[in-house]
Amino acid sequence: MNRMPLAAALLVLFGAGCSAVAPVDQDSNAEGPPEAVSSTAEALSSLSCQMSTAKGYSNGKAFTIEVVTVDGEKVEWRTANAYMKMAEAADKDHVQIRVVSGFRTMSEQQYLYHCYTSCSCNSCNLAAKPGYSNHQSGHALDLNTASPSVLSWLNHHAGSFGFKRTVPSEDWHWEWWGQDNGTGPCNDNDKDNDGVVDKKDNCPGVKNGGQTDTDKDGKGDACDADDDGDGVKDAKDNCPKKKNPDQQDTDKDGKGDACDPDNDGDKIADGKDNCPLVSNHGQQDTGKDGKGDACDDDDDGDGTPDAKDNCPKTKNADQSDKDGDGKGDACEKDADTDGFDDAQDNCPAIANPEQIDTDADGKGDACDDDDDGDGVKDASDNCSLVANAGQADADKNGKGDACDTDADGDGVEDGADNCPTLDNPNQADSDEDGIGDACDDDLDGDGVPNDVDQCIDVAGDVESSEPGAGCESTGGPTGEPEPPAGASPDTSAFQGSSQAASCSSTPRHPGTFGLSLIALAAAAVAASARRSRRDSKTTCG
User: Fold this and answer.
1) Which of 253, 223, 262, 255 is nearest to 239 (CA)?
2) Is 328 within 8 Å of 337 (Cβ atoms)?
3) N or C terminus: which one in the chain shows less Cβ crowding within 10 Å?
4) Which among 242, 294, 249, 245 is positioned nearest to 273, based on CA atoms?
């Protein structure tokens, strides 16, 4: 059996570019095929010229590169320019070229190398040692050469655009190391692709076509951490676009005064607020000088500061004060300081903030010597706040009946007293008619006045015009009424009467005894007896 030399075996094994040590233009950077290399019928490759800085490697040495994005893969920007020109030319020939793999970071290459050496991932595809893969330079591209038309086109035209295959065993691996003539779609003069060349761009690494530079420090706001240059970082600045190193915020709303349209938070914009730093929703401006009283130290504008002005709200440059009370003449319109100007005050010289005027005569009670207007001076009026020209005082307690709630002084309020003008603390009411006995002219309620009632404690049926008025008619055996006790049998008032009343158990009273003290004293005791007699209808002979 013929045996293949070891070197030849290794050459066969890594014929697809796996030699670990070889010149750059040989198979030293040979790696496994990309995961998905195929033809496509899509439109021209996608491109973003937004540049970012990356660390590239060549033969283990690091260097800085600027990368853009082609077909979703990072590519060194000059290589991307050359590729796009090549892709446009291929497209005109109806061949669609695509970037399948581009720039790789160190961590990406380390992963692929680990997969290769451990054969634990990425299908054990060949991978160059980290720092030595041409893909880490940003100039190497894996293209979609699985399509015969793509590979054929590249073989015939790629060289004219500066591309060549640096790993002969990998027909998908193409690299560009040519010269960029500045005509590609991505220009290093505008790395952030914002339309402003880097030499003039105040944020060359951050897209900011407007070039806003609030603090005019040459660094655009898009990349300036302190836009207004006040020494306070934007993240903590309550006015990031307005210089305000003191960070004053009058109304404590989180927005600095320098950029707050309503610094005092009184709902009036500073441009119209006569005290923009002092809350004064009313906008009072006594001196009409455009400066509100809330922030004006001379409200009336008379040249004297409010703190020393004896009329701070009334202009009085001479500060005249004739009465020497500390209040200038110009503003002493309320002499008694009760809150009412003298012109409207019903007692301008005596403080009376309530302005009470009982008799409505325009003169307040505080300065009126006849408050109720009854013609009796308050000093001697027994009802100074209730008109009572007669000064009646039934109980002689010095308080007139008109304002005395117990006019007779019997301890019973007038509203409940059945004799409000006569002293009757027991409130006796024999006939229960609501009128106390002390002031009732018909004690027994029989319709016969006390002064003619012959039986004052009995509700009789004899009319007042008949003999025995107020007594009960009995019609006794003799047909003659008995004379009243103490009267002679021939009393004229009873002669000739066939209807005379008699009641031997109750003394009869001649009319002259109308309201005698005896009747009044007996009234209460007789009341119950009278009721009993009424019920029994007892007659006397």
Assistant:
1) 255
2) no
3) N
4) 294
